[in-house]
Design a protein that fits this description.
By secondary structure, the protein is an alpha/beta fold. The protein has one domain: TIM Barrel. The protein is 36% helix and 12% strand. It contains 11 helices and 7 strands. It has helices at residues 7-13, 16-26, 69-72, 95-99, 101-104, 111-123, 139-149, 168-172, 190-197, 202-217, 246-253, and strands at 58-64, 77-82, 130-133, 158-161, 180-181, 221-222, 228-232. The chain has a 7-stranded mixed sheet. Strand 6 (221-222) and strand 7 form a beta hairpin. The longest helix has 16 residues, at 202-217. It starts with 6 loop residues before the first helix and ends with a helix. The model has no long low-confidence stretch (mean pLDDT 96). The chain binds iron/sulfur cluster.
Amino acid sequence: MNRFEPTYLRLFKNGILKRRVEALVALLEECTVCPRNCRVNRLKGEEGYCLAGRNPYVTSVCDHHGEEPVLSGFNGSGTIFFGGCNLRCVFCQNYQISQKPQYFRRFETTVDELAKNMIELQNTYHVHNINFVSPSHFVPQMVEAIYKAVPLGLNIPIVYNSNGYDSVEVLKLLEGIVDIYLPDFKYYDNQNSKEYSGVGDYVSKAKAALKEMYRQVGDLKVDERGIAQRGLIIRHLILPNDLAGSEKVLEWIT
Ligand code: SF4
């Protein structure tokens, strides 16, 4: 069996992971964690578009058996759902946890608890990976938790499962930390992304983000069991009346 050796262990040992945490947390002071660039001081509890402050909202932690088969494998994908979001998709299947603050605020937690959640998924449920869902607005907290989980024994791949509206500068700070990128590419038309997801520059931002993700991890690699170890998987949701521009999205990907 191929033995997975996470790069983040090396980054922890040589001090780079600590410096990445510091650089990412500093972004919260005048938040530019995602392309919205709200510039609110989240370290003082101010909130921007995503309604996230200093602490993460973690609405669900589970061994997910319905993810992409290369991620769920036999034991499940260790899925951690963040509350809040930097988009407002009218078709969101997780509407309560992404857009209803009166619901997701109840799930405020700490990065220490988040680190323990990861270790429990790995050691108790034997999941194949840690799969952060909607992490774009909580990247600093996600990396802080990884940093705290390494001394506790974390040693499985990290999946970054996002809507594609990510900052390239922030993604660069994830190089060597994230093993598998799992972004959406939702639209090929900014009018539609504005109307149905509340963001008018989705196309250029998502293209830049996906290129950076691919630069870091390349094509998908699986082990001999067929379980993903590293690489990029792009998801695309087909919308009625071709609102997602599916043909153009697929042409761009290929
Ligand atoms: S992460 Fe939230 S507060 Fe920060 S720029 Fe994005 S939407 Fe605004």
